[in-house]
Design brief:
Elements: H1 2-29, E1 45-49, E2 53-59, E3 68-72, E4 76-86, E5 91-101, E6 112-116, E7 119-125
């Protein structure tokens, strides 16, 4: 039964994506802006601080994992992607790019990202600063 639900969900997402593309193409024919964006905006991502890590999550429909590029430095998270919307007569390429300044340094070696069924989850562990030693030096 769960396979049927998953199949229906995937088919409905594909049908929605195709309809969005069709309406966007119709709008383009009349010189109007697209009705719906097939790609995410920064406001659709949520960033939560658990104390031990930053959790970034959001829904990005219409893309596959290979359509996304995610990179992280100690203080910056960058997410970009590209989607191709194709019909019998047109081919439209849409792209997005978002960059976030992180509130603290993160451990880039242990950062992880998953993307399943349109749900993006990124975990950025807090960088454990090495304890600074206070050493008194003797003067000779």
């Amino acid at each position: 039964m769960s396979n049927l639900r998953l199949w229906r969900s995937q088919e409905l997402k594909k049908m929605k994506q195709d309809m969005d593309c069709m309406f966007d193409n119709i709008c383009a024919e009349f010189g109007l802006p697209p009705l719906g964006a097939a790609l995410p905006a920064a406001s659709k991502l949520s960033i939560r601080d658990t104390g031990e890590a930053l959790q970034v999550s959001g829904t990005i429909s219409g893309l596959k994992p290979e359509d996304l590029d995610i990179s992280v430095t100690e203080k910056t998270l960058s997410i970009s992607g590209k989607a191709v919307c194709e019909t019998a007569t047109t081919k439209e390429i849409r792209s997005f790019s978002n960059q976030f300044q992180l509130p603290y340094k993160v451990d880039t070696d242990n950062a992880q990202a998953t993307f399943e069924n349109g749900e993006l989850t990124i975990t950025l562990p807090r960088l454990q600063e090495t304890e600074k030693k206070h050493v008194r030096l003797s003067i000779r």
